[in-house]
Q: What sequence folds into this?
């Protein structure tokens, strides 16, 4: 290994952090927990350097156990060589803490709200071809979030099923800090960014939802369906079953905007992006 110079700062450079996350499967190498800390296996105080191969990911519990001497260093190194989340190419499920009789989902400056009306109230802000990409169930004081994010090949990258979150470890980068979850497809290319705001709210201001050749871009101020240059901005739906409903649904659902026949798998979205820029100049 090339000799590394000592570093005066404990702050790990961002490219090194990302390399560590990718190698460790975006979670604690021992238990897979997506809430983690960066741990210098060679002890920072001794080496004073930031080398990706010498850094691993540990959740708060395992980090404290390692620091306190209850978790042997050799056990950490062994787990680092065979991270929990990489064994099945999917993360350990993590339970989100949502509850209550009201729900609020904000997507690209649009809001969707509902109250529990009994018998399991359902709200689907975005649905494509019968697949609810974002959905809420309210029942008996429980707030259940359901969400799925696909890549361009219809492979699910992120899945939240009734508040249980898990993700594929095959994507380029996944980072969860506090209440904020970011999935990146490549450098500076965000697939989705979600801010969880327990007990009853989530906010999505950036990203894109993909399904069967349909692309829904999410911006802080609007939603853009690039297939047909549809822009949705500053809309509010309360108590509606559906929101933005796109494509064929075997069992039709109502929504504040329904786009039935829509072109698929567009290779060039320049026209849609140009239209969006012109729209923003006028409306923002």
A:
């Amino acid at each position: 290994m090339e000799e590394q110079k000592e570093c005066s700062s404990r702050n790990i450079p961002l490219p090194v952090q990302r390399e560590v996350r990718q190698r460790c499967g975006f979670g604690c190498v021992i238990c897979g927990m997506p809430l983690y800390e960066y741990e210098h296996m060679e002890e920072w105080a001794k080496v004073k350097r930031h080398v990706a191969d010498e850094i691993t990911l540990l959740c708060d519990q395992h980090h404290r156990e390692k620091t306190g001497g209850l978790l042997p260093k050799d056990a950490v190194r062994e787990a680092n060589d065979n991270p929990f989340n990489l064994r099945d190419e999917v993360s350990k499920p993590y339970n989100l803490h949502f509850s209550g009789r009201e729900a609020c989902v904000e997507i690209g400056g649009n809001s969707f709200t509902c109250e529990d009306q009994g018998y399991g109230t359902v709200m689907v802000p975005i649905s494509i071809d019968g697949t609810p990409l974002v959905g809420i169930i309210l029942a008996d004081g429980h707030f259940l979030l359901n969400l799925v994010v696909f890549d361009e090949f219809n492979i699910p990258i992120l899945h939240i099923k009734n508040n249980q979150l898990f993700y594929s470890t095959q994507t380029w980068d996944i980072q969860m800090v506090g209440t904020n979850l970011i999935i990146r497809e490549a450098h500076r290319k965000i697939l989705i960014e979600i801010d969880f705001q327990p007990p009853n709210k989530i906010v999505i201001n950036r990203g894109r939802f993909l399904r069967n050749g349909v692309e829904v871009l999410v911006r802080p101020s609007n939603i853009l369906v690039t297939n047909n240059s549809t822009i949705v901005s500053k809309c509010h739906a309360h108590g509606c079953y559906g929101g933005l409903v796109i494509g064929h649904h075997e069992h039709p659902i109502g929504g504040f905007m329904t786009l039935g026949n829509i072109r698929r798998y567009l290779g060039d979205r320049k026209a849609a992006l140009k239209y969006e820029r012109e729209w923003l100049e006028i409306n923002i």
